[in-house]
Amino acid sequence: MFGAKHRPENFSDVIGLEAAKEILKNSLAREPSVAYMFAGSHGIGKTTIARIMARSILCKNRLSDGSPCNECESCTDFLSGRHGSYFEVDAGSKSGKEDIKGIVDALSYQNSSGRMIVLLDECHRISDAGKDALLKVLEEDGDYTFMFCTTAPEKMPATLASRCMRLMLPKPSTAQVAEKLAIVAKSEGVELGEDSILRAIAEEAEGHYRDAENLLESVALLGTITYDNLNRVRASCRGPVLSLVLNWSKDLSACLSALDELVAIADMGRIRDTIVRVLVDASKIGFGVVPAEEGYAEMLTQIQAIYRDDLSKVLEFILTKDRMTSRAMLESDVILVHYKFLRGEFESSMVASTTDKGSSAAKADSKPKKEEGEDKFAGMSTWERDIAIRKIRAEDKKRKKDSTVEEKISSKWGPETPESGATGVEKKVLSEEEFLSGMKEAYGSQRI
Question: Is there a single domain that holds both residue 218 and residue 143?
Fold first, then answer.
């Protein structure tokens, strides 16, 4: 598979991870650490960079950037899988005390390299007894180095992690994954139908090199790398989701038909994620962030024009705990959102402009209380309209501010100054009891 075939063989082939590469290079210039921990999500290069580091420690002719030469006897033995000083163990399947004891026993044997290296993949799965055995080994001063790779560093005992040089590897950006895909595509000689297709594959992989490379291979097996073939490979549920969102506020029957199609091709988690993805992408359209795929961009533009700020309210609803976790929940949530639109609970849909004047007039008639001067919202960007609405509400709140305290106190005790021109009792200093009594009389049963 592309993911295994195109693993980097030296530090210069690794895209990104600049801080980690510099740390490892400087570590090689001195005595290597007794243990390194490479932590991060799956498919981002933890095991790959750990293997490069292990090969560099054993290499006789290291390059200037700390990379192994990949030509000496040690490197060729390592690459062929027969190096006597290197052990790689899948801790997910060999995690017991006896398995770790076997590794520890092997460290007692000296060899021509003078150093033993052990790579433990998914090391957080090692049993508690195995972790205790490793801790005892790390406390000793031996001629060996451990490489711990894990997707769950929080599950490693603090006593063990504190004895490691810890490297937290971040997810690569979409641009970095697309850069790696371009290298793989060129090496494999696959044909790209659109310039932006590699970025679309990178986005689908969500920051995982291996997932992106394997997805690229699957699409390549259908011929040219195009959006159509990409959608065929991932059994895309984006089309039905777009149909659902476009009809959400007006045609419940079409929404439920789209749901039937979705349930047939994807699980609930994927459907929910796709709905969220479409709503997020449509929201970004309002800020000028347009996806490269033209057809998709056009659909998002329609969604943004229909719903405007309602998109954020629907997103908030969907992201509520336990939404869309089963077919029954999925259908009920779609129905709830539809009726929220019908009842006008999404306020911004009343403000959004529309090309259908008849529809606009109907909305204006059905709106309980339309704010004066609302026509000025037409032509505004989303953020400009939000600012204008906030100003109108602030002014309205200021107009409605309760001034009865001044009026009621003034009518009972007179104006504060004789210059005010009002007649009444001269101002006097009140005791606390007199003030509270007057306030209660002015406000009746209201709380002071």
Answer: no
| Residue 130 belongs to some domain of the structure | yes
When pLDDT is averaged across residues 41-66 and rounded to a whole number, the result is 90
CB 103 within 8 A of CB 87: yes
List, for residues 356-396, the tens digit of each pLDDT value: 444 444 444 444 444 444 455 666 666 666 677 777 777 77
Report the relative pairing of strands 86-90 and 116-121 from DSSP bridges: parallel
Q: Are the CB atoms for 138 and 163 separated by under 8 Å?
A: yes
Q: What is the mean pLDDT of residues 202-212?
A: 85
Residue 391 lies in a domain: no
This prediction has a pTM of 0.62
In the block, tokens 């073939």 appear at 229
Query: Are 265 and 142 contained in the same domain?
Result: no
Query: What's the alpha-carbon Rg for the chain, to the nearest Å?
Result: 33
CATH of the domain at 229: 1.10.8.60
Q: Are residues 10 and 138 in the same domain?
A: yes
Q: Are residues 150 and 195 in the same domain?
A: no
Count of CB atoms within 10 A of residue 140's CB? 10
Does residue 260 share a domain with residue 199? no
Give, in order, the Cα–Cα distances in Å from 251 to each of 77, 246, 337, 342. 66, 9, 12, 11
Cβ count within 10 A of residue 92: 13
Give pLDDT, residue 149: 92
The domain spanning residue 11 has which CATH number?
Answer: 3.40.50.300
Residue 387: inside a domain, yes or no? Answer: no
Structure tokens at 4: 């295994």
Pairing type for strands 144-150 and 35-39 reads parallel
Do 158 and 303 lie in one domain? The reply is: no
Please classify residue 423 by burial: count the beta carbons closer than 10 Å to its beta carbon, then call 0-12 exposed, 13-18 middle and 19+ buried. Answer: exposed
Structure tokens, 3: 């993911």
- The total of structural domains in the chain comes to 4
For the segment 259-282, the average pLDDT, to the nearest whole number, is 86
Give residue 215's domain range: 174-233
Cα separations (Å) of 131 from 37, 51, 92, 232? 14, 22, 13, 45
Burial 307-344 (b: 16+ CB within 10 A, else e): bbbbbbbbbeebeeeebbeeeeebbebbeebbebbeee
Q: Ramachandran region of residue 168, left (φ > 0), alpha (ψ -120 to 50) or beta?
A: beta
Measuring CA to CA, how many Å separate 330 from each of 153, 251, 320, 324, 337? Answer: 35, 16, 13, 4, 11
